[in-house]
Amino acid sequence: MFETYFTMNESQAIDYIKATIPTYFEGIDVLECKEIGDGNLNYVFRIYAPSTGASIIVKQSGPVARISDDFELSPDRNRIESELLTYQGTLAPGFVPQMFHYDPIMNCTIMEDLSDHVIARTGLIDGKTYPNLGNDLAYFLVKTLLHTTDIVLSPDVKKSLVKNYSNPELCDISEMLVFTEPYNNQNQRNELYAPHQAWLESTLYDNDTLKKAVAKLKYRFMNVAQSLLHGDLHTGSLFVKEGSTKVIDPEFAFYGPMGYDIGNVIANLAFAYVRAASCHEEAQADYLLETIEQTIDGFNTLFLSDWTEYATEPTAQFDGVAADYLEDVLQDTAGYAGTEMIRRIVGLAQVKDIHAVTETNARVHAERVVITCAIDYIMHADHYKTGKDFTDILVKTFKEGTHE
Ligand code: SR1
Ligand code: MG
Q1: Which numbered atom of ligand 1 lies nearest the CA of 174?
Q2: Among 67, 190, 265, 271, residue to substitute to test ligand 1 (most atoms within 8 Å of Cβ)
Q3: pLDDT at site 401
């Protein structure tokens, strides 16, 4: 039955598990299945045994993206995702789900069910706080990013990883949706919030200096094979519960500039901050500022100590090299935080955090705060070195307002 590809329904997903890992639910007659995917690309089936509580996830790629038929995507993304999660499990044990199976015919992966966690974006919108999140993110980022550079890996291992994780179709999506369309609406996929459409158009479409800086960030994204990136590290790619952070969904993985992953994390925490501040949830807003600061400052500290301990590249121990390298990473981080912030306000794939600000003036203010800070991150990227540098501007712009 599973020798030729087809997109499964819930009952076929149950048959699939029974056929593929017969031991997992051995002796259990009644299984339930629900399709729970809420991402933009794939179908996610949760198969559950009510009698024992055992459960498992089957994730299948369809032939086109869920969010839009415009995107016909290579199912090779399942291989990339399953191999990367397995690899990241060795770099940052406990931070990714356990992978059980990859099937190149049905374009599926089978993995650990993390339903005792919640998606971080959802938890944060619901006002929850996760005290370890910033430190966990700092740890995960250093272990998966610094440790996949040729500062740490031997040149041959690093180059074979670059080859294995070549991901042209998914990179093409990011190149279009993150770096091009938000600035010219090529392909007519942008969605501008109507009450300040003219402000958004003049701020983004008519700003040549900004567009030039974004073009440079795009070329770095395309050309700098620095680290093995997750490639789409937003708060919808994080599962959290008290004391545990898990990173999921690395189907956009490829070798790119490490600031892209870090910047994506910071941008998505910034959306959560702007939502909380807009909804007058002061304690939540303060927690999010702390989390941004912990992420950046924790990254900086661990990056330098891991560099000292694990660098194998001979030039890495030259005086001042580590600090210079980190400065470049932080500059990229600010720039890519900026591009993520802009594209999630006006582009095809927007974020629930900002849509959760329902009052019109508050939503306009929230969007303008995000765009104004994003432009500063991009245009003055060399200013952003500490966690506080990243948060100060968010707080100031939220309080003092944005330009007309
Ligand atoms: C067509 S895919 C749209 C977006 O969803 C993914 O999560 C990525 O962020 C991508 O840009
Ligand atoms: Mg995803």
Answers
A1: 11
A2: 67
A3: 78
How many whole angstroms separate alpha carbon 401 and alpha carbon 371? 12
- String of DSSP letters for 159-204: HHHHHHT--HHHHHHHIIIIIIHHHH-GGG-----GGGHHHHIIII
* Most distant CA atoms of the chain, gap in Å: 66
For residue 139, report the distance from its CA to the centre of ligand 2, in Å: 21
d(CA 21, CA 154) in angstroms, rounded, equals: 37
pLDDT band per the 50, 70, 90 thresholds, residue 67: confident
Structure tokens at 270: 């910034």
Q: Which amino acid is at 242?
A: E
Model pTM above 0.90: yes
Q: Say if strands 254-256 and 42-48 run parallel, antiparallel, or are unpaired.
A: unpaired
Best CA proximity match to 291, nearest among 170, 66, 132, 159: 132
CA dist 396 and 392 (Å) reads 6
CB 140 within 8 A of CB 92: yes
Strand, helix or coil for residue 380:
coil
Give yes or no for residue 379 having a pLDDT over 80: yes
Tally the residues of the chain: 404
Structure tokens at 239: 């599962």
Amino acid at site 244: S
Between the CA of 318 and the centroid of ligand 1 the distance, in Å, is 40
Nearest alpha carbon, ligand 1 atom 4: 349
**Angle, helix 282-310 to helix 321-346, in steps of 10 degrees:** 140
CA of 31 from ligand 1 middle (Å) equals 32
Phi/psi for 247 (5° steps) reads -105, 130
